[in-house]
Design a protein that fits this description.
Residues 16-88 form the GHMP kinase C-terminal domain. Pfam families: GHMP_kinases_C (PF08544), Spore_II_R (PF09551). This is Stage II sporulation protein R. Keywords: Transferase. By secondary structure, this protein is of the alpha+beta class. The protein has 2 domains: 4-145, no CATH class; 172-344, no CATH class. It is built from 10 helices and 13 strands. It has helices at residues 14-22, 25-39, 42-54, 76-81, 148-176, 191-211, 218-227, 229-242, 313-319, 326-344; strands spanning 59-62, 68-73, 93-98, 101-105, 116-118, 128-130, 132-133, 180-185, 249-258, 261-263, 266-268, 271-280, 287-293. A hairpin with a 5-residue loop joins strand 1 and strand 2. Helix 1 crosses helix 2 and helix 6 (191-211) runs antiparallel to helix 8. The chain is elongated and about 95 Å long. The relative contact order is 0.10.
Length: 345
């Protein structure tokens, strides 16, 4: 005897249950087709029924408890081939039967219908019921048909992610507040201007080597840079002249937005960082950046205060495991870009 739950989680009529138990194919078709017509608009009914019939189904219908389409086939080969028209439909959800309950499986917005299930009575031995959810896309402007359970699961997943991101975002903000960055912007992207940018970089780093050696915090490093800003600018300008160019150079301490960036084995999250910014000429070329404090890009960096002397253990876990936190880094970067965009309005 077939388990009634294979077709209905909550059968609405005794006739429907009796038809399943007795293996009455035509009666099952008539029962579920009634539900099929009630739940869907007529154009959808006609379209899906046509596809099922063209695939060789005796009839098509829908479960009494939800939008699951059934194609009733006597030939198992035809039944297994029938899902092909929907296989690449990304706004549908896969529905499969496990044990005695219909278990809905939905993953983001993906989803391919590939599985079939059949009852176990002698008469239904070669009859396969194709199951396919007709729920609307999760974020469609049209009315959606997500169940209360699915909405609750979705909300729970969203809240869990937000709670996780709250802690991660706090770690990223703490990293921003303890790092002082160095940024050099070339006059243009020509080969000559890019080479000049690197020469200016080397000259400023050489001058800075002794300047930041005793700094213990970002604030101290930033204060030293501000106090010696004119000398830093002059060092950059002298290098430009020495290389045979007359581009003007500008130096400033500023707070600026950086995307998520990798520096050797370290990944710094996106956000607004305080930085020493050197611009050369029109400043329309690609930039070069590094971390001025802790002095990771200075010639004597290995003898200076290292990053793990400044950041906490949990913060070091973040910056040293970029691959592990790719999704979270992306989420933080997206949030920071939106925030930065509004702040610039």
């Amino acid at each position: 005897m077939a388990d009634k739950h294979l077709l209905w989680e909550s059968p609405e009529t005794d006739d429907a249950v009796e038809a399943v138990c007795n293996g009455d194919i035509e009666k099952v078709a008539n029962c579920i087709y009634n539900k099929f017509e009630k739940v869907l608009n007529l154009p959808e009914v006609a379209s899906i029924k046509r596809i099922m019939l063209e695939a060789g189904a005796l009839n098509a219908g829908m479960s009494g408890s939800g939008p699951t389409v059934f194609g009733i086939f006597k030939d198992k080969g035809m039944a297994e081939a029938a899902p092909a028209p929907w296989r690449n439909t990304v706004t549908r959800c896969l529905c499969a039967v496990r044990s005695q309950r219909a278990v809905r499986l939905w993953i983001s917005a993906c989803i391919k219908m590939e599985k079939t299930v059949h009852t176990q009575t002698e008469m239904f031995e070669r009859t396969v019921f194709l199951m396919k959810s007709l729920r609307k896309p999760l974020f469609s402007k049209k009315k959606t048909y997500l169940s209360v359970l699915e909405k609750s699961l979705l909300l729970g997943l969203l809240l869990s992610f937000l709670l996780t991101m709250t802690g991660f975002s706090g770690q990223c903000e703490a990293i921003e507040n303890q790092v002082f960055r160095f940024h050099v912007l070339a006059n243009s992207d020509s080969q000559e201007d890019q080479a000049l940018k690197l020469k200016v970089r080397d000259r400023v780093l050489e001058y800075s080597e002794g300047l930041f050696q005793n700094a213990q915090t970002r604030e101290e490093a930033e204060a030293l840079a501000a106090a010696h800003l004119q000398e830093l600018c002059q060092a950059a300008q002298d290098e430009v002249y020495r290389q045979g160019y007359d581009y003007p150079v500008k130096a400033e301490i500023t707070s600026m937005f950086f995307d998520t960036r990798e520096y050797e084995t370290v990944t710094l999250p996106a956000g607004c960082y305080d930085a020493l910014r050197i611009t050369i000429g029109e400043a329309e070329g690609h930039n070069w950046w590094c971390v001025m404090f802790p002095p990771m890009c200075l010639p004597a960096a290995e003898e200076s205060q290292e990053l793990n002397d400044v950041l906490s253990e949990s913060q070091m876990e973040v910056v040293e495991n970029g691959d592990k936190y790719q999704v979270k880094f992306f989420a933080v970067e997206l949030f920071e870009k939106v925030k930065n965009w509004f702040q610039d309005r």
